[in-house]
Amino acid sequence: MTESDSPTPDGPSSADLDAAIAAARERYQAERAKRVRPDGNAQYGELTGDFAEFDRDPFADPDYHRDPLSEEVEVLVIGCGFAGMLTTIELKARGFDDVRMVDRAGDFGGTWYWNRYPGCMCDVESYTYLPLLEETGYMPTEKYASAVEIFSYAQLVGRHYDLYPHALFHTEVVEAVWDEAALRWRVRTNWGDTLSCRFLVTAGGILHKAKLPGIAGISRFKGRAFHTSRWNYDVTGGAPGVFMDKLADKRVAVIGTGATAVQVVPRVAEAAQELFVFQRTPSAVGQRDNGPTDEAWFASLAPGWHAERVKNFTEAVTGKKPEVDLVDDGWTHVMWDDTQTKSDDPEVTRQQERSDFLTMEEIRQRVTRIVEDPETAAKLQPWYGKHCKRVCFHDEYLPAFNRPNVHLVDTDGHGVDEITENGVVACGVEYPVDVIVFASGFEVTTDLEHRLGFDPEGRGGIRMSERWSDGAHSLHGILSAEFPNLLMISLVQAGFGTNFLHFLSKSAEHVAWIIATCEERGIATIEATPEAEEEWYELLLGVAMGIAGYSTRCTPGYYNSEQGRDSKTARNLVYTGSLLEYAGFLERWRGDGSMSGALITEGT
């Protein structure tokens, strides 16, 4: 027996493992090929026109009304989710109280205001995800807090930092125009407000603009339908955390099997007469192991624990392998090894592939252990690398498929064929249903003005859609040429991480620093130079090339902009390295003090 044929201490022989990896490699490519579409992100539709009702705020007071405002402020922040809240809090800490916040939602919370679907909770542990825990003295009740609790916490933060007097809720910006003579932004809203500001901050959210799958006949359905981000409890009965009693005699379709569906399916499964789950690509679902917070442990945490824990988590999920894994959960176990960054060492590459395969194989075997029907289990197994899609962690999703009323409809990677008046057609078979739930996710790396809902008009009347017609142009994803004093918080050309709140907190800190520094130094306007934008883009491309080989082998999804290959998609990339590396760029830029790459005009 040769060394390569010898059994490894923990499993198969090296030769058998290599053979399994080679087979998986072929399977990955076959599954990818089924799903790649030439329309990329364009395959999805908006919640407009026939679907405008899908975007209605189900939580708003239908009788709400206010008179238009006309006011001048120093800073206008668009967005009252955590990005907008953290930015305003940072500004207030730097002495800026003349801040106005606007949001179409009826309260603080952003995605946690809108997403109240059954089973909704954070998928990053609460002690790491929720910001300002030390400052507010708040203890999350569970390791993974529910959406109800997170929304309540956002309201608590709003009260703690006295943000409510700054906020205009139920308000949408419809126009933002730069006034060169006054060196101010002129902003109009759907209420007829005329707001003027020196600095305009777009903190419109990362997961806020819902999208619908472009399924033929989607508007023909005569039953009830809605998107998960606007859950219709009038149809289902119940409430967040309350059993949905109106589904007992209903056949329900859930279209989508991503992170949202993983949380929704168990709750619908326990309530509906029948549930049909339509799958294009299965999620990788690991163990969550949620539980109540140990109060004694929480009370024992030393000052500064939160920042340390946030950093430690990001290190653990980006392959930095901190000496101690403070979080020690599914995320840190699955992502401990960075298996996507290209290495010039063939042995390192070989070990990366082995590690990735073994991680995903354990996730696939977990499906086999839990799902009783072998055919269903096989269809629920994810055949792609661990960095291709956001891994999910849940303890009730897979067991739901053991219920007799739950049916997995796997579309072999092609998606639903069409929707009829009475149901959903997949693989040529019609499934009559009474209710359709679209768990189809959100726009992430689409055009910024598209996600904001208005098209900023910069110097000389140029619109963002015009200047960014070939994709994003920015410095750090925050400043853009021809748009003075516009500061953007968005994933596009900016950071990206498992813990979105870590990214948002770093972005808010940077934006507030820029505004405060302009005030201190008497700077009238600031924007990026075109040269700096291109340098930043080249840096982004260089980093992206480090994982390009891995990414191109992935099935399509929002991580890779649905494998879009047009020039605009290429420019709308995110910083694909560690979030700590991206934050490092911002910190060094601030530390240098010269505002390198920024075009500045002095005040008069």
Structure in words:
- This protein is an alpha/beta fold and 604 residues long.
- The chain folds into 2 domains: 40-46 and 212-288 and 344-438, FAD/NAD(P)-binding domain (3-Layer(bba) Sandwich), CATH 3.50.50.60; 70-209 and 444-602, FAD/NAD(P)-binding domain (3-Layer(bba) Sandwich).
- Helices cover 34% and strands 15% of the residues.
- The chain contains 20 helices and 21 strands.
- The strands form 6 sheets. Strands 2, 3, 4, 5, 6, 7 and 19 form a 7-stranded mixed beta sheet that branches. It has a 5-stranded parallel beta sheet with strand order 9-18-10-11-14, with helices on one face.
- The radius of gyration is 24 Å and the shape is globular.
- The termini are far apart.
- Mean pLDDT is 92; it is low at 1-9.
What sort of overall outline do the alpha carbons produce when their principal axes are compared?
globular
CATH architecture of the largest domain: 3-Layer(bba) Sandwich
Estimated share of beta-strand residues: 15-25%
Instruction: Output the radius of gyration.
Output: 24 Å
Span of the ends, CA to CA: 83 Å
Poorly predicted tracts of residues: 1-9
How many discrete structural domains?
2
Structural class: alpha/beta
| Largest sheet composition | 7 strands, mixed
Which CATH class of the largest domain is shown?
Alpha Beta
Write the layout of secondary structure elements.
Blueprint: H1 14-35, E1 44-45, E2 70-78, H2 82-93, E3 99-102, H3 111-114, H4 126-129, H5 133-136, H6 147-160, E4 167-168, E5 173-179, E6 184-189, E7 194-202, E8 212-213, E9 224-227, H7 233-236, E10 251-255, H8 259-269, E11 274-279, E12 285-286, H9 295-300, H10 305-316, H11 330-334, H12 346-370, H13 374-379, E13 392-393, H14 397-400, E14 406-410, E15 418-419, E16 423-426, E17 429-432, E18 435-438, H15 448-452, H16 464-467, E19 486-488, H17 500-521, E20 523-528, H18 530-551, H19 567-571, H20 579-592, E21 598-602
Parallel strand pairs: 2-3, 2-7, 3-4, 7-19, 9-18, 10-11, 10-18, 11-14, 12-13
Antiparallel strand pairs: 1-8, 5-6, 6-7, 15-16, 16-17, 20-21
Helix pairs in contact: 2-17, 17-20
